[in-house]
Amino acid sequence: MRRFRLYLIGLLICLFIVGCNPSKESTTSDESYRIISLMPSNTEILYALDLGTSVVGVTDQDDYPKDVQSLPQFNTYELNAEALLKLKPTHIVTHEIAYPTQQKVLDQLKKEGVEIITVDDATTIDEVYDTFNQVATPFDRTDKSEQLVEETKSQVQAVLDDIPSSDTMTRVYYEVSLEPERYTSGSETLHHDMIAQLKAKNIYEDLKGWQSIALESLIEKNPDIYLHASDITEEDLMNDIQGNKALKKIKAVQNDKVYVLDPDILNRPTPRIDEALKLLRDHIYEAS
After folding, report:
1. In 3-state terms, what secondary structure has residue 265?
2. What are phi and psi of 102, to 5 degrees?
3. For site-directed labelling of 137, which of 79, 130, 146, 200 has its Cα 20 to 30 A away?
4. Distance CA 135, CA 155 (A)
5. How many beta carbons lie within 10 A of that of residue 213, not counting itself?
């Protein structure tokens, strides 16, 4: 049951975020690419690579850039081979975490000649850059992806160069799910790497990946700041906190350092990673 829950939380995260190593580069011309993106982060990368006009379908979670909202949408959990094939795709770009639930349908499309690209899960900022190149390679856009990597690196470095000085290291609790259990980002996750690069401390760095935590553990660790990034509202989170006397005693709650952040920015490994870092930086150092 625990393994199944971890799998489910991985799928929830992958809806907000995003492997394959193509054996050969596609010889299809730009004009004839017909791409279905099955992960919002992949969609953002495709548009950043100037392949937006080739995208013919996305997920029902896609909202950026705004152009995608007019495209046919698919439920990542309930793919239908016939519906996908109606769009006559040449390529489908999916994600490492989502692929197991999609494999049966995607195998059918592969038999029909559709190229399936499975993007690796990025657990560090450097690995985010790798995904740009991974998405670009089948479409002969490596020159553009290398340019995108350099631009994004420069923007990320600008955020890191502007970290306020602090005598203490802020202890951060980063939450990715509240129900049915609290889940946090441990080590070997992108959130952990971002927190570390911002010279703060992830209080659950001793855990690996996304893990459920006991409320008693959170109270014992007593974070300075409580960050939550999912689709719940700040009111929902505060109602949950106020309903627990012990939880109200942690530093973050007592000092009004509880924040609900935009999951589309924080949980998607995209060229907007600098915006995610900036959002984290500004909240962490406001709390220090």
Report:
1. helix
2. -105, -10
3. 79
4. 20
5. 18
From residue 17, give the alpha-carbon distance in Å to each of 2, 39, 240: 22, 7, 25
Q: CA-to-CA distance for 126 and 41, rounded, in angstroms? A: 16
21's CB contacts (< 8 A; 6+ apart) are 134
- For 42, the token pair is 């992949």
Lowest mean pLDDT among 21-35, 57-71, 132-146: 21-35
Q: Is 266 exposed, middle or buried (0-12, 13-18, 19+ CB in 10 A)?
A: buried
Question: Which tokens is 270 given?
Answer: 């995209």
**All domains of the chain, ordered by start, with CATH?**
2-158 (3.40.50.1980), 171-287 (3.40.50.1980)
Q: Kindly report whether the global pTM for this prediction surpasses the value 0.85.
A: yes
Tokens encoding 139: 């479409």
DSSP letter at 6?
Answer: H
**Is it true that the peptide bond before 223 is cis, omega within 30 degrees of 0?**
no
- How many C-beta atoms lie closer than 10 Å to residue 7's C-beta? 13
Condensed to tens digits (0 to 9), the pLDDT of residues 55-102 reads 999 999 999 999 999 999 999 989 999 999 999 999 999 999 999 999
